[in-house]
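STRUCTURE REQUEST FORM
Protein name: 4-phosphopantoate--beta-alanine ligase
Source organism: Natronorubrum texcoconense
Requested output: structure tokens
Priority: standard
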Amino acid sequence: MTEYDTVSADVEHEDEIPEDHPRYQDLLTRHRIEKGVEKGITHLQGMHAEGRGSAFDYLLGEETIPSADAAERAAAAHLLLADHPVLSINGNVAALVPGEMAELAAATGADLEVNLFNRTPERIGEIAAHLRDHGAEDVKGLEADARIPNLDHQRAKVDEDGIYAADVVLVPLEDGDRAEALDEMGKTEIVIDLNPLSRSPRVAEVPIVDNIIRAVPNMTEHARELADVDEAELQRVIDEFDREAALEEAEERIRSGEL
Ligand code: ATP
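Status: completed
Returned output:
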């Protein structure tokens, strides 16, 4: 028995989770997803996605490994260099990092667009309001006046002046079909996913194998650091990032189990 065995699985507020708990980030993530489901912004299936992510994060030691940090820096450089960057928000992302996504959007000049696997007008509206409560200025995704080619009707819906027109898109915790369809549209994709073997990071130009609660604030920090550098320097940061090596390093870390 440790003192932590007394932490309830059902805390009312995240402040009740002790920050020095060995599985603090897991408890925090789970708590935020549960609240998201309660509020109606996260679908119940989001719990399963979270469970899968949690297992990988355990094996990564719940830390940002060096290759993920390099990916986060390259991702920040892509967003800063883009003509029309868009950050895609689903129910898990909205529950886990609403304010952090608003900050990343502000730091990079990107748009935020709500994009749901289980799409209903109510949930889209709830998520947009939730993002605005956390500092987002403009939220796209409500028009849904364009379609991603080669995807079934519901999941293909996007805003014409949002994801459809974007040159660089951040798609965290994305399902493989959509990630592949966006890739086929020729977009530069940045994917955040704790599973390096999942299809989404495998099609991404920049796969970030890290927990989204660490990845997004770190991307914002990199974006602020890179805000005043010239385009050649941003391009150098992008060119130096090796996506294959990053995927291999993450897989190796998970398989070796060296915590
Ligand atoms: P595929 O890409 O092959 O369709 P999948 O069916 O596992 O994979 P989803 O369940 O749609 O994909 O997406 C969930 C993904 O998000 C999982 O790979 C999971 O590891 C990852 N994930 C879950 N929670 C987090 C988190 N907090 N941070 C980063 N990644 C996460």
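Reviewer notes: The mean pLDDT is 93. The first helix runs from residue 24 to 39.
Form closed.
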